[in-house]
Structure formats: structure tokens, C-alpha cells
Amino acid sequence: ITSVNFVFELTMLSAIIEPDIAYEGTVLTVTGNANRALSYEYDWVVNNVSISQNGTTLDGSFFNKSDMVYCNIRASYGPAKSYWLQSNTVTIRNSIPVMTNSLIEPESAYETTILAAICDGNDMDNDTLTYEYEWFGNNISTGQTGTTLDGTFFNKGDEIYCNIRACDGDVLSDWLQSNTITIQNTAPASQIDSVQ
Predict the structure, then answer these.
(1) In this model, does residue 196 exceed pLDDT 60?
(2) How many Cβ atoms sit within 10 Å of the Cβ of residue 182?
(3) Is it the case that residue 181 has pLDDT exceeding 50?
(4) Exposed, middle or buried: residue 69 (CB in 10 Å: 0-12, 13-18, 19+)?
(5) What is the C-alpha separation between 100 and 16, in angstroms, rounded?
(6) Which one in 68, 75, 125, 172 has a CA-CA gap of 20 to 30 Å to 39?
(7) Which residues on neighbouring strands pair with residue 194, listed in sequence order?
(8) Environment class of 20 (CB within 10 Å of its CB; exposed 0-12, middle 13-18, buried 19+)
(9) CA-CA distance, 91 to 94, in Å (whole number)?
(10) Is 153 helix (H, G, I), strand (E, B) or coil?
(11) Residue 26 burial (10 A CB sphere; 0-12, 13-18, 19+)
């Protein structure tokens, strides 16, 4: 009886990171495929430097916007190991900031009131945000872009609101409209007739 030993070459066929559009809040997942394998080894690389992570996923704690991420994979079958295969490279994109709050105070306002815009936004990349303001009276822009608006720009009965958007230094969020305040009529000062 003649025994025959079958020799095969263990070969990686593919290595793919998904999704290919990723942000700092994205969890990347790599999938490897070989012609025959019992297990795989993983080596994640960020900006061409191995970060010693060897799982099938990688979260944003290991990369920042603009970083270039890929993963090397090799297959194992018993003592046999394939060559390392490099996956596609994913460039981490800048997250667009999001406005979370936009309001003006005080709610009871008169022609002598100075209105103030208050806002908040969120950026997944933890970028420092600045804000842009545009004040409106009766749905017409006042041309004022500061954080406050005084009675020079409104009269009693006017309806005032402010649109605000955030900027992370690269991109702008959508505008978020504040609450609308109707300017109230100022009651006349009481007068006391003096008796001569």
C-alpha cells in the first residue's frame, strides 16, 4: 500500500475592511478569506504603524480623522501559515458637526430688551466648535450676525428668531432655528397728577 501525502499551498484570497466610508465613531470590521484555513491572524496598521491590535474590529479610540487604516491578515491551518495579505486602506473622514440646541432669551422681550442667542453643538471628532448667527425679524434677515440683538432692529409686535450653525474649522453644520419671540408692548409709565 502506497501512502500519498497531499501538499497544498495556503493562500489568502481576500482581506476587506468595512465600511469603506468611516469616521471616528465608526467601528471598522475586517474579513479575511483563504483557500483553506482554520484560523486567521490580524495586525491593524494606522498611518503605516502597527498598533498591536489583533481582533477583527477596530474602534475610533485607535484612530482620528485623516488617519489611514488598513489590516494585514494571514491564514493558519495547523502548522502551515499563509503570507500576510494587506487589506484595502480606509481614510478616516471628518465628521460634520451637529447643532443640538438653539434658543434666544429672554422669552418676555420689549423694545428695550437685548436678546441673547444661546446654542450648543456636538462634534464626533471632539473638534473645537465655533458658531455663526443670523438674526431674523418677521422672517427677514436683519443682517446681524452677533450673539445679541438690541431694540434698534425690532419693534413691538415683531417676531424674532435666530438661525445658528456650527463650524469645526473645516465644515459647517446645518442651520438650526431658535425659538421665536414676539416683542411685547411696553406699558406706559404711571403718571401722578400733582395738585397745585
Answers:
(1) no
(2) 13
(3) yes
(4) buried
(5) 35
(6) 68
(7) none
(8) exposed
(9) 10
(10) helix
(11) buried
